[in-house]
Design brief:
heterodimer, A: 113 residues, mainly alpha, 3 helical TM bundles of succinate and fumarate reductases, 4 helices, elongated, B: 275 residues, alpha+beta, Ubiquitin-like (UB roll), Fumarate Reductase Iron-sulfur Protein, Chain B, domain 2, 2 domains, five-stranded mixed β-sheet, two-stranded antiparallel ribbon, 10 helices, 31% helix, 13% strand, binds iron/sulfur cluster
């Protein structure tokens, strides 16, 4: 039996899982606080805009967004599989495509800042 | 009798009169009548499985296995099930108790209310009543080569293969498996894809891979790093929840995914790289 090529999709999934665990709860909390008008001074619009305009900032944001999307896509693929949806190739193609499109869009938006 | 600790053998005789007289009195007695709903299947006469109910007078401190032994001794000698040690060591008494894979010698009656439903381990073919056929698991155990494959065989005159306590700790937890198959009964992937090597066998492969005296990882990867190996696992984690020996097979499989991924990178992305 041949060895599997799953590491190609699994490695970014594992990396994304780590990113999600560390960053996403904080980002959600800060976004909510900002929406309610309680953003800490250092995180106001001007500062964040400057961060996203910076090359390294763009790279970091892109990393967080794309890895999180890839990880979520892979997790969702596994969930479908767990529930017995065995059309794995179709499910994987749709979900990974969604993650890739999302990543490309993120890149486009970031480059336009 | 009512104060005796859990026994390694349930009583084969009826309880003494005094104990029987206090039956059902709350607080005062340590006896309780338990209703078991047990799956029955006889391949010679039954076309399909059915359930049979037994009312069993049990001691409060008994486990489900004691109740089954009492049924077999006093009520219905035709009931079939496996057990041996009565102390969560041999791994032979696994069954579904109220839908959960459990060692019946470790499932205390006091933790259950109402009718207790007892079925053979899920995901395995039923041989008879609560006895399942473990052949598939046995076959998979063999396939992962669960034994030391030394890097270099050395003559006996050179003495034993030594190991430090730290090296032992690297695999000790994964060596505690009692082959009870509860993790296979709990794993939805094994249920859906019977060719999946499964939690216990892969964990055992990991156990030997982690052993400082072993050099057989490459051989085991031929089975473990395939689709039917660790990559069939979607990290549901049910195996670790039901494992009575705290082996945590899910962690072993995730660690194997990491090392298999590193192998893959070395093999495919580094020119001339060999894992
Ligand atoms: S890993 Fe745990 S649940 Fe699975 S067979 Fe071994 S002892 Fe039983
Ligand atoms: S009888 Fe040995 S583990 Fe239960």
């Amino acid at each position: 039996m041949a060895k599997s090529h799953k590491p190609v999709v699994w490695f970014p999934f594992a990396a994304g899982g780590t990113v999600i665990a560390f960053f996403i709860p904080v980002i959600v909390l800060l976004t909510l606080m900002a929406a309610l008008g309680h953003a800490p001074a250092g995180l106001d619009y001007a500062n964040l805009h400057a961060f996203a305009a910076n090359g390294l900032g763009k790279l970091i944001i892109f990393g967080v967004v794309s890895l999180s999307m890839w990880s979520s896509a892979h997790r969702l693929r596994c969930t479908f599989y767990d529930f017995g949806v065995r059309a794995d190739t179709a499910v994987a193609t749709i979900l990974y495509l969604a993650a890739i499109i999302g990543s490309i869009l993120a890149a486009i938006y970031l480059l336009r800042i | 009798m009512s104060n005796s600790p859990p026994r390694s053998h349930p009583p084969l005789a009826a309880p003494p009169e005094g104990a029987a007289a206090s039956l059902g009195r709350p607080g005062g007695s340590s006896e309780r009548t338990v209703t078991l709903e047990v799956l029955r299947y006889d391949p010679d006469t039954d076309s399909e499985a059915r359930f049979q109910r037994y009312e069993v007078v049990c001691q409060e401190e008994w486990v489900v296995l004691d109740a089954l032994n009492k049924v077999k001794a006093d009520i219905d000698p035709t009931l079939n099930y496996r057990w041996s040690c009565h102390m969560a060591v041999c791994g032979s008494c696994g069954m579904m108790i109220n839908g959960e894979p459990k060692l019946s010698c470790h499932a205390f009656l006091r933790n259950y209310e109402g009718v207790i439903r007892i079925e053979p381990l899920a995901n395995f073919p039923i041989e008879r009543d609560l006895v399942v056929a473990p052949d598939d698991f046995m076959d998979k155990l063999k396939r992962v080569k669960p034994y030391l494959i030394p890097k270099q065989e050395k003559p006996i005159s050179e003495g034993e293969y030594k190991q430090t306590p730290a090296q032992l700790m690297k695999y000790r937890q994964y060596s505690m498996c009692i082959n009870c198959m509860l993790c296979y009964a709990a794993c939805p992937q094994y249920g859906l894809t019977p060719s999946f090597i499964g939690p216990a066998a892969l964990t055992l492969a990991h156990r030997y891979n982690q052993d400082s005296r072993d050099g057989g990882r490459k051989e085991r990867q031929e089975v473990a790093a395939t689709h039917e190996g660790v990559w069939e696992c979607t990290f549901v984690g049910a195996c670790s929840e039901v494992c009575p020996a705290h082996v945590d097979p899910a962690s072993a499989l995730q660690q194997m995914k990491i090392t298999s991924s590193i192998d893959w990178i070395v093999e495919h992305l580094i020119p001339g790289g060999k894992p």
